[in-house]
Amino acid sequence: MHSRSDDPVATALEHAATLIEQDVRAVSAGNPVVLIDGGSGAGKSSLAARLVRRWPVSGHVQLIALDSLYPGWDGLDDGVERALEWILRPHGRGYLGTWRRWDWERQTEAESHAVDPALGVIVEGSGILRASTAGLADIRIWVESAEPARKARALARDGDTYRPHWDRWAAQERLHIERDDPRTLATRIVEVP
Q1: Rounded to two decimals, what is the model's pTM?
Q2: Domains located in the chain, CATH noted
Q3: Which listed site, 38, 116, 162, 184, has its alpha carbon 20 to 30 Å from 178?
Q4: Which of 92, 191, 102 lies closest to 141, judged by CA?
Protein backbone atom coordinates (compact mmCIF):
# COMPACT_ATOMS: atom_id res chain seq x y z
CA MET A 1 0.00 0.00 0.00
CA HIS A 2 1.40 3.35 -1.04
CA SER A 3 0.90 6.53 0.89
CA ARG A 4 -0.50 9.49 -1.03
CA SER A 5 2.96 11.05 -1.29
CA ASP A 6 4.24 7.86 -2.99
CA ASP A 7 1.44 7.97 -5.58
CA PRO A 8 2.65 10.07 -8.55
CA VAL A 9 -0.90 10.45 -9.91
CA ALA A 10 -2.25 11.75 -6.59
CA THR A 11 0.77 14.04 -6.23
CA ALA A 12 0.25 15.50 -9.74
CA LEU A 13 -3.47 16.03 -9.10
CA GLU A 14 -2.88 17.68 -5.69
CA HIS A 15 -0.31 20.04 -7.23
CA ALA A 16 -2.70 20.86 -10.10
CA ALA A 17 -5.59 21.50 -7.69
CA THR A 18 -3.42 23.98 -5.77
CA LEU A 19 -2.59 25.88 -8.97
CA ILE A 20 -6.21 25.86 -10.18
CA GLU A 21 -7.39 27.09 -6.78
CA GLN A 22 -5.05 30.07 -7.29
CA ASP A 23 -6.44 30.54 -10.81
CA VAL A 24 -10.00 30.63 -9.42
CA ARG A 25 -8.98 33.24 -6.82
CA ALA A 26 -7.37 35.35 -9.57
CA VAL A 27 -10.62 35.42 -11.58
CA SER A 28 -12.22 37.51 -8.81
CA ALA A 29 -15.74 36.40 -9.69
CA GLY A 30 -18.44 35.08 -7.40
CA ASN A 31 -19.53 32.45 -9.92
CA PRO A 32 -16.50 31.28 -11.94
CA VAL A 33 -16.83 28.53 -14.55
CA VAL A 34 -14.15 25.84 -14.75
CA LEU A 35 -14.02 23.27 -17.57
CA ILE A 36 -11.89 20.15 -17.14
CA ASP A 37 -11.24 18.05 -20.27
CA GLY A 38 -8.99 15.11 -21.05
CA GLY A 39 -9.16 11.52 -22.17
CA SER A 40 -10.96 8.82 -20.25
CA GLY A 41 -8.98 7.82 -17.16
CA ALA A 42 -6.78 10.95 -17.26
CA GLY A 43 -7.84 12.09 -13.78
CA LYS A 44 -10.55 14.68 -14.57
CA SER A 45 -13.03 13.48 -11.93
CA SER A 46 -10.34 13.15 -9.26
CA LEU A 47 -9.04 16.63 -10.05
CA ALA A 48 -12.57 18.07 -9.97
CA ALA A 49 -13.24 16.45 -6.58
CA ARG A 50 -10.04 17.97 -5.19
CA LEU A 51 -11.02 21.38 -6.53
CA VAL A 52 -14.49 21.12 -4.96
CA ARG A 53 -12.87 20.48 -1.56
CA ARG A 54 -10.60 23.53 -2.01
CA TRP A 55 -13.14 25.86 -3.68
CA PRO A 56 -11.94 29.35 -2.67
CA VAL A 57 -15.10 31.32 -3.50
CA SER A 58 -17.90 31.84 -0.98
CA GLY A 59 -20.85 29.50 -1.45
CA HIS A 60 -20.48 25.97 -2.72
CA VAL A 61 -19.48 25.07 -6.25
CA GLN A 62 -21.75 23.03 -8.52
CA LEU A 63 -19.92 20.02 -9.97
CA ILE A 64 -21.38 18.43 -13.10
CA ALA A 65 -19.79 15.36 -14.66
CA LEU A 66 -20.47 14.88 -18.36
CA ASP A 67 -20.83 11.16 -17.56
CA SER A 68 -24.26 12.23 -16.28
CA LEU A 69 -25.15 13.93 -19.58
CA TYR A 70 -23.70 11.76 -22.36
CA PRO A 71 -26.66 9.98 -24.00
CA GLY A 72 -24.96 6.59 -24.25
CA TRP A 73 -21.66 5.22 -25.51
CA ASP A 74 -21.83 7.11 -28.82
CA GLY A 75 -22.82 10.41 -27.22
CA LEU A 76 -19.63 12.37 -26.52
CA ASP A 77 -20.56 15.30 -28.79
CA ASP A 78 -24.24 15.19 -27.79
CA GLY A 79 -23.27 15.31 -24.11
CA VAL A 80 -21.19 18.42 -24.71
CA GLU A 81 -24.06 20.06 -26.63
CA ARG A 82 -26.36 19.31 -23.69
CA ALA A 83 -23.87 20.92 -21.28
CA LEU A 84 -23.64 23.96 -23.55
CA GLU A 85 -27.41 24.41 -23.91
CA TRP A 86 -28.53 23.35 -20.43
CA ILE A 87 -25.67 24.63 -18.24
CA LEU A 88 -23.05 26.91 -19.77
CA ARG A 89 -25.16 29.29 -21.88
CA PRO A 90 -27.84 29.88 -19.21
CA HIS A 91 -25.16 30.33 -16.50
CA GLY A 92 -23.29 32.80 -18.69
CA ARG A 93 -26.46 34.86 -19.15
CA GLY A 94 -27.29 34.79 -15.44
CA TYR A 95 -30.24 32.41 -15.89
CA LEU A 96 -31.10 29.30 -13.95
CA GLY A 97 -30.00 26.25 -15.93
CA THR A 98 -31.60 22.83 -15.82
CA TRP A 99 -29.96 19.61 -17.01
CA ARG A 100 -31.36 16.11 -17.27
CA ARG A 101 -29.36 13.15 -16.00
CA TRP A 102 -28.86 10.31 -18.48
CA ASP A 103 -29.93 6.96 -17.02
CA TRP A 104 -27.38 4.53 -18.47
CA GLU A 105 -29.36 1.45 -17.43
CA ARG A 106 -32.66 2.55 -18.95
CA GLN A 107 -31.01 4.45 -21.84
CA THR A 108 -33.24 7.49 -21.34
CA GLU A 109 -33.27 10.87 -19.64
CA ALA A 110 -34.01 10.84 -15.92
CA GLU A 111 -34.50 13.54 -13.27
CA SER A 112 -33.66 17.22 -13.72
CA HIS A 113 -31.06 19.21 -11.80
CA ALA A 114 -30.91 22.99 -11.43
CA VAL A 115 -27.78 25.09 -11.90
CA ASP A 116 -27.72 28.31 -9.89
CA PRO A 117 -26.16 31.17 -11.92
CA ALA A 118 -25.02 32.88 -8.71
CA LEU A 119 -22.68 30.01 -7.85
CA GLY A 120 -19.55 28.71 -9.52
CA VAL A 121 -19.64 25.67 -11.79
CA ILE A 122 -17.16 22.94 -12.63
CA VAL A 123 -18.01 20.85 -15.69
CA GLU A 124 -15.70 17.90 -16.19
CA GLY A 125 -15.69 15.37 -18.97
CA SER A 126 -14.14 14.31 -22.24
CA GLY A 127 -15.00 16.71 -25.02
CA ILE A 128 -16.03 19.75 -22.95
CA LEU A 129 -13.20 22.01 -24.10
CA ARG A 130 -13.92 23.29 -27.62
CA ALA A 131 -14.43 26.62 -29.36
CA SER A 132 -18.16 26.70 -28.54
CA THR A 133 -17.56 26.30 -24.78
CA ALA A 134 -14.21 28.03 -24.25
CA GLY A 135 -15.62 31.56 -24.29
CA LEU A 136 -18.11 30.66 -21.56
CA ALA A 137 -15.43 29.50 -19.11
CA ASP A 138 -13.10 31.47 -16.86
CA ILE A 139 -10.66 28.58 -16.44
CA ARG A 140 -10.07 25.84 -18.98
CA ILE A 141 -8.08 22.75 -17.97
CA TRP A 142 -6.65 20.06 -20.24
CA VAL A 143 -5.54 16.93 -18.36
CA GLU A 144 -2.81 15.16 -20.33
CA SER A 145 -1.99 11.52 -19.66
CA ALA A 146 -0.66 8.72 -21.87
CA GLU A 147 -3.26 6.28 -23.20
CA PRO A 148 -1.84 3.09 -21.60
CA ALA A 149 -1.99 4.66 -18.12
CA ARG A 150 -5.43 6.17 -18.77
CA LYS A 151 -6.84 2.89 -20.06
CA ALA A 152 -5.48 0.97 -17.06
CA ARG A 153 -7.05 3.46 -14.63
CA ALA A 154 -10.39 3.62 -16.48
CA LEU A 155 -10.74 -0.15 -16.69
CA ALA A 156 -9.66 -0.60 -13.07
CA ARG A 157 -12.36 1.92 -12.12
CA ASP A 158 -15.21 0.70 -14.37
CA GLY A 159 -14.07 -2.82 -15.31
CA ASP A 160 -16.31 -4.98 -17.43
CA THR A 161 -18.93 -2.24 -17.81
CA TYR A 162 -16.47 -0.12 -19.79
CA ARG A 163 -14.18 -2.72 -21.40
CA PRO A 164 -16.43 -3.53 -24.42
CA HIS A 165 -16.90 0.19 -25.14
CA TRP A 166 -13.32 1.48 -24.74
CA ASP A 167 -12.47 1.54 -28.46
CA ARG A 168 -15.63 3.29 -29.61
CA TRP A 169 -15.33 5.90 -26.84
CA ALA A 170 -11.60 6.41 -27.53
CA ALA A 171 -12.41 7.01 -31.22
CA GLN A 172 -14.78 9.83 -30.23
CA GLU A 173 -12.12 11.33 -27.96
CA ARG A 174 -9.53 11.19 -30.78
CA LEU A 175 -11.96 12.94 -33.14
CA HIS A 176 -12.55 15.64 -30.51
CA ILE A 177 -8.80 16.19 -30.06
CA GLU A 178 -8.15 16.34 -33.82
CA ARG A 179 -11.13 18.59 -34.57
CA ASP A 180 -11.24 20.85 -31.49
CA ASP A 181 -7.58 20.90 -30.35
CA PRO A 182 -8.60 21.35 -26.70
CA ARG A 183 -5.00 21.60 -25.50
CA THR A 184 -4.62 24.97 -27.29
CA LEU A 185 -7.83 26.28 -25.68
CA ALA A 186 -6.66 25.45 -22.15
CA THR A 187 -5.62 28.12 -19.67
CA ARG A 188 -3.74 25.39 -17.79
CA ILE A 189 -2.38 22.01 -18.85
CA VAL A 190 -2.10 19.33 -16.19
CA GLU A 191 0.34 16.47 -16.80
CA VAL A 192 -0.65 13.22 -15.07
CA PRO A 193 1.65 10.17 -15.19
Answers
A1: 0.96
A2: 4-191 (3.40.50.300)
A3: 162
A4: 191
